[in-house]
Each structure stands twice: as structure tokens, then as C-alpha cells.
Amino acid sequence: MRPRLLLALLLSAATSAALAEKADSSKPIEVNADSAALDQKQGINVFEGNVVVVQGTLNLRADKTVATRDPSGRQKLVATGNPVQFRQKLDGQTEYVDGRAARVDYDSASNTVILTGKAVVTRGKDMVSGEQITYNTVTEVYQVKGQGASSTAPKGRVTVILQPQEKP
Q1: Is the dihedral of CA 56, 59, 64, 67 positive or negative?
Q2: Residues 6+ apart with CB under 8 A from 92
Q3: What's the pLDDT tens digit per position in 83-133?
Q4: Where are the beta strands (DSSP E) in 12-153?
Q5: What is the C-alpha separation between 148 and 130, in angstroms, rounded?
């Protein structure tokens, strides 16, 4: 499983026009963790304890990641943490997209990325937060649900902050 794919998709969730740093995809992926169990035959890779995934400008931190691939090539990734955090530079810009949630799920078969548990995605001063952020990588549509209370979104509410565009 290529974690860079997950993060590139998450970054697109912040804004449909934002693209992750393209050069990152040609960089090596480095995964560091306290332990790893890699089952290439079954297509299951588990990393636990202070998991750090780095590829170019992309950085993902989690307590645990489980990446699976079925025989047809469909991929799933589940990252859990307190919270899971990611950061990646936007293509051709100096700006970064940052995100965090208690859990991040990616499913290549359904083309979805789901951030659950006090989910927040920021790009500069723009911010989206809620209990769950779901992003479809094909339609480039995302939904935000506010089912729980957090410091930035009262119970049952979502928060979206968009800055006005600068005039040329």
C-alpha cells in the first residue's frame, strides 16, 4: 500500500483545486514504527507504535496503521491515533495542508477517504472540521458530519472557514 496515495487524496479533500506535491510520488517511502508485521502472501502490513510515514514533503503520524491489498489489487488503509496527523506541501506552492482525526480509512474500491473523530483539515487559514469528513476521490466531493462535540464544533455541528480570495 502506498501511503502517499492516501495523503494525496486527503489533501484534495481540503479543496478540490489543491494538489499534493507531485514530486513526492517519485520519492522513496520510509516507514518507521516500534514494530511491524508484514505478510506479503496475505497482503497485510501492520505497523504499530509511533508510526511515521515520510515520502518527500508528505508526513503521516499514527499510533497504528493496517494496510491490506486483495488479489485484485484493491487497497485499504486504516490509521488510528490520538490523533492521526498528516501534512503535505501543495504542488507548486509554499503552502501545506494539515489534517488530523482519531481514525483515517481509505478504500480504493469505493474511492473513499474517511476521517473520523474530531476530524479537521486545514489549508492556510481555511479549515473544515466535524466529527467525520468523507471524501470521494473520483467525484471530488466531500461531506462533513458533526455528530459529536469538539472544541471547534459544538455537538451536532460542523465548521467551515473559507478566507476571501485575494484580488489580483
Answers
A1: negative
A2: none
A3: 999 888 877 778 888 889 999 888 878 878 889 999 998 888 888 899 999
A4: 30-32, 35-39, 44-55, 58-69, 75-89, 96-107, 112-123, 126-136, 141-145
A5: 8
Cell of 73: 489489487
Give the residue-averaged pLDDT of 31-56.
91
List the Cα angle 88/73/116 in 5-degree steps.
45
HSE on the CB side for 54, CA within 13 Å? 7
Q: To the nearest 10°, report the CA torsion of 154, 127, 30, 28.
A: 150
pTM metric for this prediction: 0.75
Q: Average pLDDT, whole number, for the chain?
A: 78
d(CA 45, CA 51): 12
DSSP 116: E
**Grid cell at residue 4:** 502517499
CA distances from 161 to 10, 15, 89, 132, 134 (A): 18, 12, 20, 16, 17
Distance in angstroms between the alpha carbons of the first and the last residue of the chain: 42
DSSP class of residue 14 equals H
The answer to whether residue 7 scores a pLDDT higher than 90 is: no
Dihedral angle, C-alpha 53, 37, 26, 119, nearest 10 °: -40
Instruction: Give residue 145's identity as a one-letter amino acid code.
Output: K
